[in-house]
Amino acid sequence: MSETGPTTEPGPSGKALVVDDEAGLRALLADYVAELGLETVQAENGLEAIALAGMHRPELIMLDVAMPVLDGRQTLRRLRQDPEFRDTPIIVLSGEQDTETAVECIANGATDFVTKPFSSALLRARMRAVLEVARLRRSDREYRRRLEAHGLELEEKVRQATRELLAAHERLTALDRAKSEFLTLIAHELRTPMTGVLGGSQLLAEPTLDEDGRRGALELVNEGVARLLRIIEDALLLTRIKVGTTDFSLEPRELAPLVDMAVERVARAADARGIRIAPLVGTTGGVLCDEQLLFDALVALLECAIKLGHPPGPIGLAGAWSGGQWELRVAVPCKPVPPELAARFFDVLSLVEPLSPGGDLGLGPPVAAEILRLLGGGVALEATAEGSCFVVRLRAASPPG
Description:
Layout: E1 15-19, H1 23-35, E2 39-43, H2 46-56, E3 60-64, H3 72-81, E4 90-94, H4 99-107, E5 112-115, H5 120-189, H6 191-204, H7 211-243, E6 251-254, H8 255-265, H9 267-273, E7 277-282, E8 286-289, H10 291-308, E9 315-322, E10 325-333, H11 339-342, H12 364-374, E11 378-383, E12 387-395
Parallel strand pairs: 1-2, 1-3, 3-4, 4-5, 7-9
Antiparallel strand pairs: 6-8, 9-10, 10-12, 11-12
């Protein structure tokens, strides 16, 4: 199992610090230290010892009490105040035989206290003992640290696996729901165009049908087929959006040219109903969007506005900067949409057919709403004095200049 983080505790330095103002005693202690397999670093007083300890991080410190500049008691206290040496074994050596000195040193953090003159065998044994205890404690802390790290890593893996399982469950649920909705959409939306296709086909089968009637029947079939294809495309797009399989990328695009392109696309449908679409007014700027998806959403809303609108219109288009987003308002002169229907106007299979003198609205409203939601924006239907208004909100690529 991999480590989740670096070791925070310093490893063995392979060094011991011997602190005494007598060179001969330092040399003797250095020999004892060498028997333990450690390299000796020597200091003559407490200040030098503190500096060398910070540089070498010794595993063991042999500290005399009586020294010039900074004695052993003061040096001991300052070393123990440093978290780096809080657990380093420190053996204090003292020529003072009184118990009070020993108690003071032990209270200030000395690991052991040895009086001079000392038994070399006993001192070496104590050095080995405190060093071994320190190594065991360090090993135990490292083991606990690794155990905790592995435990945290295991917890994170469990959390990650849980998140993946939940995501998989949500995806399966969404797929199942999308399948049901798709079948319902197809069953509901295909009835009208299929009626046209079947009716046109039956007319074409009539042997007494003249040329004008044949052309009319073919137009009826073609219109029905075109609408069938559009419904299937819209239903597939809605399904992909709902299950998160739609590929798109957000890039800065100017809103006004996209609106003009969408108006051009629906111009034929507007002319067929005798409805005029007024030029875009107000201000627009750059929006973050997928160009094709936003174009499809604008076309769907404009087609919906044309079907809802009363000739000759006009359908008004206005851009504005509002609340940190670009806003496009599509004003439709029409019969007001009742509030209970307006609340679910963009839902799949919303019952808005009676409101549309230009024909069944189909999947246009939910397709537009889902695309705009996917792009980080949204759409709402507001009542106005003249009828209704689609309010489209889009993420801004930049604020107005």
